[in-house]
């Protein structure tokens, strides 16, 4: 504690802030890259005019409350104020669309990754680029707005992601880390910049609309991890810390997306490594040795924060439906007058699930709070399906929901491992699904038939990951690669606890997923008829 206090007092602590889907989290780390304080703020997206969004007011109120919570944590632990910092990093959920005019006013409400209204744009761009362009990518949102003949498009002078927006507002720099940038528009692995060929194709495609801008004019500049991305301005310091204690001039690392910070937080930026993030949404990231043989609609090509090619399987839904069912058991306990401990409820139910049948006794769950592009649904309805002859008991019920949380992820990864024959040395899991020790790990290992490691630091998540990128910016004395810096300075040989799949679990999950795919028309019907 004494060391942590002196680190903060000397202005040598590093701050990472990540805007997640349900929580904004701040983590302060010391010179050894270990967390020494944290703060958080809970928030929710809103459905406005049929599109998922967070308001500009919610963004700033949220980050200010999160920072105030961090200040309080520092005050309570160490009895001091945060006056200065060695570095800051901003991270956020990737993709989406934030467009601004020349007065820096947002032109339409922030359109998040969760929106699936961009089907026509994504399909046309995928064909034009001969490259899979997902629905949630920024370029899909921009082109859909053009196809919709939205009035605001002619006034765009800059468009970016949430991380890029917050970074711009606190530093004045219109830049983006390469990992986050790769969710705006495809990156050329040779130039480590947006694909010049695709920019040219896009400009030709939209030329008939007569806009005054070209795509390059309105995109943020691409930066690699460790490159100079500006410093905290006076105004930026006030926007983070309304108490006025935080001083300007702090170096800020390139802003990154939650995929990039997840890779950093799990030491998975080296080729032949991978990670799976499983929370409100889920995604797997496998760092490739070479490009895939062809584009796949289910697989997005992004990059690590230092520019290596990554095959990403992104699923819009993961633990939301699982959590909703667990909350029913919480309600039951409250109804019965029993004391409620959510960690205990999760722990008991998750562990009990492992005693169920490996194929869940025939039970199926669809956790689709929103649409799921991998399975071709633009909308979703949470759905539990069984026949009268299935083995309906609590263990199978919970196991079916755990399987559902990574079911779509399995469908995408089966392409990588079975068709593309990708080789990996290590896959690391992180996020809420892995909080109950060993359970989410075992389920994921069965799903993708690969050993899964979880580190003790897995719970630190993306805010810690972006803080580590801040550390890489200012503490990389040896000018090491990001992978070497993480190996030597941060993880020092810690590969976590590994769980290997059992043949029975793999066979059971395979049987479950065949059932799951066969019953997708039931989910489609639920979307069609349940309004």
Automatic annotation (TrEMBL):
Keyword Kinase: yes
Keywords for the protein's UniProt record, in alphabetical order: Kinase, Transferase
Gene3D superfamilies: 3.30.420.40
GO molecular function: kinase activity
Carbohydrate kinase FGGY C-terminal domain span: 275-472
InterPro entries: ATPase_NBD (IPR043129), FGGY_C (IPR018485), FGGY_Carb_Kinase (IPR050406), FGGY_N (IPR018484)
Domain Carbohydrate kinase FGGY N-terminal, chain residue ranges per copy: 14-259
SUPFAM superfamilies with a match to the protein in the record: Actin-like ATPase domain
Superkingdom in the source lineage: Bacteria
A single GO BP: carbohydrate metabolic process
Similarity-based family: Belongs to the FGGY kinase family.
Entry protein name: ATPase
Organism of this sequence: Phocaeicola plebeius
Lineage: Bacteria, Pseudomonadati, Bacteroidota, Bacteroidia, Bacteroidales
